[in-house]
Amino acid sequence: MNFHGGYWGNEAYIDYSVNIPPIAYEETFKRLLISEIDHLFNYPEINGASLCKSLAKQNQLAEGQIILGNGATELIYLYARTFKYENVMIIEPTFTEYRRAFDLTETTIHTFELDKENQFHLEAKTLVKAIKATQSDCLILCNPNNPTGQLYDLCDLEWVLNECPKLNILIDESFIEFVDKEYQLASANFMNVSHRMDRIIRLRSMTKIYAIPGLRLGYAIGGQEAISKMMAFKEPWTINQMALAAGIHLVEESSYDQVIYEWCQAERLYMKEALLKMKAIEVYEGQANFLLIKVEKALNPLFRKQLKAHKIYLRTCVDFKGLNENYYRIALKQHEENAFLINKLKEILYDEIK
Fold this sequence. Notes:
Strands 2-8-7-6-5-3-4 form a seven-stranded mixed sheet, sandwiched between helices. α4 links the parallel β3 (87-92) and β4. It is globular, with a radius of gyration of 21 Å. By secondary structure, it is α/β, with parallel strands linked by helices. The chain contains 14 helices and 13 strands.
């Protein structure tokens, strides 16, 4: 099993490793989940057709262009075993489950590592050279990327597609709802074109934007032929009745996503501005509901010790390819908790520098 955040989710620690919005659920949503208990005697829809219909309407797509997953992670593994590519290129550092999923299919995995010194900016021409040199038939990227928060330029993606006409792309958009609305719209308009949808599968995580990791909901968007092929490899009933009911409610009736979007915009700006004032750390220009920082190597051992003493847990990045123990991912929380962290970091870093 790969390493993830969330291992200190108890009262003893304030856990900044889990990138799930800390917003209270609406009362109507709570009542819905309680009412669904009476339906647990029945099997859920085998492929979640009702939720697919709601998501298709929300995304202005045909129902056959949507497939549900038990979280986006299930769909990563489903994609890998469905298409069985010979050579896959993964843009790193990124979410570790992509590599594990393709390892299980005995695919040859190639790495394209982004430059830390250049804020993890993608050099599209260099990427194309690497794709051609390795004869990669599939490119995997996360947009915005986890853990860097990097957003990819849509012009770069178009150039890659044009230069590599046989290339397919899996784009994980699990955090796309947290980024600027204009980019979201531009990205959707770019992706939802038939000739691109034949080559691009996009992953979405309802877990993230609706803060429901315990229910496990995600979906993929793609051309009908590709989605149909994935459906043929998918196990039945991977989405339970409560998750299906919750998903339909959240898509059709809730304003929860807008509340979370506004929270994220405000707290990310607050955290970024506060962290940038700390000379002992480097802050990367992330666009999601988390931020990546780097602590000066000489200060890091004591920094880790002090975090533990203050009962604070940040997501360490030792398992991300190209990063190391000096990098930390900080998930945004409620303002009071974010302010607490900033004050403690000032205290810790000031003591270390002295």
